[in-house]
Amino acid sequence: MNSFWLRNRKKEPILKWEDWVRPKEDYHWKVGRSAMELARAWFRKGSLACPVELDSLLRSNARTGAYRLILGEPEFKTPLPERGEGRNHDLWLEATCPSGNMTICIEAKADESFGNLIRDEINKARKHSASTRLPTRAKALLELLFARSCDPAKEPWSNLRYQLITALAGTIIQARHDDSATAVFVVHEFLGKALDPERQRQNDADLKAVLALLYPGCDITNTNKL
Predict the structure, then answer these.
(1) Res 218: pLDDT
(2) What's the mean per-residue pLDDT of the chain?
(3) Above 80 in pLDDT, residue 83?
(4) pLDDT digits (tens, 9 = 90+) for 32-76
(5) CB 180 within 8 A of CB 173
(6) For residues 123-137, average pLDDT
(7) Which residue has the higher pLDDT, 125 or 25?
(8) Is the N-terminal amide bond of 81 cis, ω within 30° of 0?
(9) 178 and 101 in contact (C-beta within 8 Å)?
(10) pTM, whole model, 2 decimals?
(11) Residue-by-residue DSSP string for the chain
(12) pLDDT above 70 (res 221)
């Protein structure tokens, strides 16, 4: 992994955590918040290095175990179906594994939520514009992810967190852009005494709700979040 490097939006190398690309919302950039903690995690040794948690997670799976990181960019955007903002990955990584190219998209969390439920996000959009394309976009993302017909206005789809759906579908779309045979979505969760454990439990439940639909019948008691 010695040739691995991180870049900013100007394609310049990121050489220390203070140079990390800032998130859109400034309140995420402070000690204990996900954006800053993610930046610091990649420079724990004083220079750029894959966090041991991510390394252990990737090496625990036969498909990704012999991975090699090539390039990364924080706050990386992937275009999504229909009009609107793209998916903003907290960190996008280009890598290789035994099966070929691999795309890794990381969502960092302290105790920040996964956003609104799909139904609430659609209702919010309709209040701003009766002609919003969000229902169409949500349907397209759900059907890309679950490979079946999904109505975002009906359960169980309406009760999923919209941010999680854009994150997972956005990872698949980015992997296609990267011509990657393997797509990996990672939730890197940070802990601390100042964080709200109830919010973190809710995040865990929201993630498991999606996984239960993706992998029906599988044991999802351990979500393997970092």
Answers:
(1) 80
(2) 93
(3) no
(4) 999 999 999 999 999 999 999 999 999 999 999 999 999 999 999
(5) no
(6) 92
(7) 125
(8) no
(9) yes
(10) 0.94
(11) -TT-EEB-TTS-B--SGGGSPPPSSGGGSSTTSHHHHHHHHTTTTSS----HHHHHHHHTSTTTTT-EEEEEEEEEEE--SSSS--EEEEEEEEEEETTEEEEEEEEEESS-----BHHHHHHHHHHH-TT-SHHHHHHHHHHHHHSS---TTSTTGGGSBHHHHHHHHHHHHHHHHTT-SEEEEEEEE---TTS-HHHHHHHHHHHHHHHHHHSTTS--S-----
(12) no
What are the angstrom distances between the C-alpha of 201 and each of 116, 164, 178?
Answer: 16, 15, 33
Q: For residue 31, what are the CA distances in angstroms to 13, 28, 116, 181?
A: 23, 9, 25, 36
Six token digits for residue 153: 């206005």
Q: How many CB atoms lie within 10 A of CB 181?
A: 15
Distance CA 175, CA 185 (A): 10
Using 50, 70 and 90 to split pLDDT, how confident is the model at 223?
Answer: low
Amino acid at position 59, single letter = R
Q: Which of 120, 209, 220 is nearest to 156 (CA)?
A: 209
> Do residues 120 and 199 make contact, with C-beta atoms less than 8 angstroms apart?
no
In the block, tokens 């797509």 appear at: 183
**Would the CA dihedral through 53, 93, 20, 89 be positive or negative?**
negative
Question: Binning pLDDT at 50, 70 and 90, where does residue 2 land?
Answer: low
CA distance linking residue 202 with residue 217, whole number of Å: 22
Joined tokens for residue 173: 């779309």
